[in-house]
Amino acid sequence: MKSKVLAVSAISASFITLFLTVGSYFSAVDIFCVFLASAFVIAPLYCKSYTGSFLCYLVGGLLYLILCGFNFLTLVFPSYFLFFGIFPIIKILLQEKNVNLYLAWTIKLVWAILAFYIIYLYYTAFVGPISDVPEWLQSSFIYFIGVVAIIICVLFDRCVSIMQFLWNKYLSKVIK
């Protein structure tokens, strides 16, 4: 790996660790911190290094687990490792490999729905049933999770494109 890829990956991994740890300790900003951490997964892709991006995803996540004392009971853990952390890498890989647009969207949407169902099952298994769900929504809550997963996937896909553009613009000025 080149030195600039290592430097960008190390800095990205440190920011991923920072944001995930903050999200783990302060539950009011947990999903926002996971979103910010996922923005830093994209940075090594400026150097076309999927290995660097995947390693900063893993190292940042593992350092977060160590700093949080292996606290698996937060929403940060499953949402980062199942969806938000790895989604930018897969999205950009599908985009650069020129995968058919309909096939790419099918993969992303099915993955998002499955990831959100697993996150829901994981969270309710450890924390307990969600009691704040309105009565009108309780009978169709599983469908509601699917619809929310699709909406978040579409919005997050667009955010990843914007983050990739901003990283490319910023890093092109910094890295020569």
Sum up the structure in keywords.
mainly alpha; Arp2/3 complex 21 kDa subunit ARPC3; 8 helices; 176 residues
What does this structure look like?
78% of the residues lie in helices and 0% in strands. The protein is mostly helical. It has one domain (3-174): Arp2/3 complex 21 kDa subunit ARPC3, CATH 1.10.1760. α1 (3-25) runs antiparallel to α2 (30-41) and α2 (30-41) packs parallel to α4 (76-84). The radius of gyration is 17 Å and the shape is globular. The relative contact order is 0.13. The model has no long low-confidence stretch (mean pLDDT 90).
Summed up, what is this model?
The protein has 176 residues and is an all-alpha fold.
What is the β-strand count? Answer: 0
Helix-strand category: mainly alpha
CATH topology: Arp2/3 complex 21 kDa subunit ARPC3
Question: What's the N-to-C terminus distance?
Answer: 16 Å
What are the segments in which pLDDT stays under 50 over at least 5 consecutive residues?
none
Classify the beta-strand content into a percent band: under 5%
User: How many distinct helices?
Assistant: 8
Could you say which overall geometry the principal axes of the C-alpha atoms support? globular
Task: Write down the secondary-structure element order.
Answer: HHHHHHHH
Proportion of residues in helical segments: over 70%
- Report the mean per-residue pLDDT as an integer: 90
The CATH class is Mainly Alpha
Task: Supply the number of structural domains.
Answer: 1
The CATH architecture designation is Orthogonal Bundle
**Any idea what the radius of gyration is?**
17 Å
Taking the sheet with the most strands, its summary is: none
